[in-house]
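Notes from hallway chat w/ T.B., transcribed later so I don't forget. T.B. wanted the structure written out for a chain they're using in a teaching module, and asked if we could keep both sequence and structure tokens in one place. Agreed to drop them here.
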Amino acid sequence: MKKSLLSLITMMALCCAVAAEEVKYEFVPDFITPPPGKQTIGNGHGEIAVDSAGQIYVSVQEKDAGIQVYSPDGKFIKALPLPNSLHGFVIKKDEGKEYIFAAVLGEQRVLKCDLDGKVVLEIPTSSFPEAQRDFVTVSQADPADKSPKPKMTVVDSGVRKGETACEIMLLLKDGRRETIGKDAHTKVEGGLKLTNCDVAPNGDIYVVDGYGKSWIFVFDRAGKFKSVFGGPVEPYNFKNTHKIFIDPRFTPARLFCCDRGNNRILHLDLDGKIIGVISDQGMRNPSSASFNGDLVCIAEIAGRVSVWNKEGKMVASLGVNDTKGQTNTPKVEPKDWLQGTVTSPHGITFDAKGNIMETEWNLFGRVLRWNKK
């Protein structure tokens, strides 16, 4: 009896394993119909998402028209009057209503707006803690170096406490204040570079400055700052943590981090404690993710879309591009696009049926679709 039961359990486990391997997708050519008068959707460096009605939202770098809305079958409906540098956004329900939550890279602020683009909440730059918001590095070049790209040498780093045309004042890590002279050979870099946000089940908003130091900031539903963790320090050692998401597949929910610069994906709990690395082998610079059931699809900017199960095993690989010079670049022209082959996957989403749509980092704008079989 025990032997039979053990055999049955083993067979069931094997069947589940086989089922996990049999996730199949079919490429849908020429899915998107661009806006009237356009050959392509326009300069893309953002995200794609689907609302509960199946409408598709994709961001483009167009002034006061930062998100385009398409029907479920890919027909253009309208553009929303939002900033042109919406780098990352999600569509989530909050208190029973759907909203767009977006990180505006060019303006270093977070917006919550309705599905018509009306802003109902803003988290401005000033709401972020100055230790991360105003942290800069000052570099200078030798005036005698007349080369086109003179070598820059770091002078110091710290929290910017003031700046004029001639000098910058820093608060250093050890508490000292330093004033550094500025001239044409001085470069000041740093501060926030917000790339993505998502919303926890309790309404807390999580924001990452993935083009900055990869700090993760937490705000409450009303936009009040709560905490910060992550960054380029132990135990995280984040590097270009491009986008983060709330992973709903687990109870309690977790943070899913696309730590692109370290070529890994990992889980954190909602307080910032590292749960574990999902994968750090064979990744192609993970840039974005979306969830459906027990699956997560990942946009990998170095030429792949991948699908993973809840156990952290890759179960599908789509659109793989191994052509030198065609990935991790926005410059691939439409004449060089190949049907079903990605260039630089930057944003990604499942729809309710488990179909996948991916938007690329591309000067012309490109969306690819795979339907689940």
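Follow-up for T.B.: The mean pLDDT is 94. Might be a good example for the class.
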